[in-house]
User: What shape does this take?
Amino acid sequence: MTGPMSADLEELYQSIILDHNRRPQNFRAMPEASAHADGLNPMCGDQLTVWLKMNGDVVEDVSFQGSGCAISKASASLMTQSVKGKTKAETEKLFAAFHAMLMGHGVAADLGKLKAFSGVSRFPLRVKCATLAWHAMKSALDDAGV
Ligand code: ZN
Assistant: This one.
């Protein structure tokens, strides 16, 4: 995508974020997890915990719980959907592409629904909201020792 977003696309992206904020996916604790990590974004008041269940180096299951703004919650929800079933390397590659998009460094084609957060690059303070769950997931992934 090059020029400014069309109004239709912007509306679609907003509805994806609002929908995931209202009905977050994989929103539960996971007692049988391989690892978990907490994330805190004091600038906005977002806090969450991410749980990971690994099968070898594949993310077999991932969940989160927490409270915060719509961006942080929707991003956590979409993160869980995006990394489930992926290897550690695939997960890290996806996070790098997601982070690059938020920094305004281009939108990778394989980001899928994560493109809904492309508009966040215009609001630098919200980048921490959008990446909070991803950083926690990365910490849990490192703790899992795969
Ligand atoms: Zn926030």
Remarks:
- The chain is about 40% helix and 20% strand.
- The first helix runs from residue 7 to 22.
- The chain has a mean pLDDT of 94.
